[in-house]
Amino acid sequence: RYLDQGTADPHNDGVMIRQRALNLTPDEARELNEALKATLAPYLGRPLEGPRQRQMVTLFSLPVVEPPMPD
Q: What b-and-e string marks burial along 32-60, b requiring 16 or more CB atoms within 10 Å of the CB?
């Protein structure tokens, strides 16, 4: 929908896509999850009024299953 509107300007609209591979222990992965929740918490529940526009934020984390090393 965003790109189909004909006036999309990803740079000026603040569109971003980031993907990084992180080497984490299970405890570090849980710590990262908690840190992300804490970072987003102050922005949740703000009313959609005035100059605010809804921003879709999607975060996901999953373990990468590496293929077995050959013998």
A: eeeeeeeeeeeeeeeeeeeeeeeeeeeee
